[in-house]
Design a protein that fits this description.
The protein is of the alpha+beta class and 132 residues long. It has four helices and four strands; from the N terminus they run ααββαββα. The chain starts with 10 loop residues before the first helix and ends with a helix.
């Protein structure tokens, strides 16, 4: 019969770290979501005209904001730039008599900054868990 001794080094630290991660409070999660939403709103305001949307009045830049509504953080256009929704999904133009194809801005900005938002989440979790 063969006997083998296994020595796990650092397993106690790993278990403690998993307990820390499982113990994330709602406050920590809210902070991570808030920081990610702030980053997305800032990037969206900066890049709103760089994805095919024409600058006419300039209302779109600075009109993107985030707020907490019913426990969720929402990033979206304020009432001054309501037409961004139409550009994102397309719309029927009565004047032109045809469907105007979408020129998505928000989804492109989100997709290009998804990794930066996830990095913001990770940084917030590390800071809250004192892992830095």
């Amino acid at each position: 019969m063969i006997s083998m001794d296994l020595d796990f080094q650092g397993i106690d630290e790993l278990i403690a770290e998993i307990d820390n991660i499982e113990g994330l409070t709602n406050r920590t999660k809210d902070n991570a979501l808030k920081n990610g939403a702030e980053l997305l709103a800032e990037r969206w305001n900066r890049e709103v005209y760089s994805h095919g949307l024409a600058r006419r009045t300039g209302n779109s830049q600075g009109a993107i904001a985030f707020k907490k509504e019913k426990g969720d953080y929402i990033v979206g256009a304020t009432s001054i730039a309501f037409y961004l929704y139409m550009h994102e999904f397309g719309y029927w133009s009565v004047q032109a008599g045809r469907f105007i194809a979408p020129t998505p801005t928000g989804s492109r900005v989100y997709e290009s900054n998804k990794n930066a938002i996830l990095d913001t989440y990770v940084d917030t979790f590390r800071r809250e868990l004192r892992m830095l």
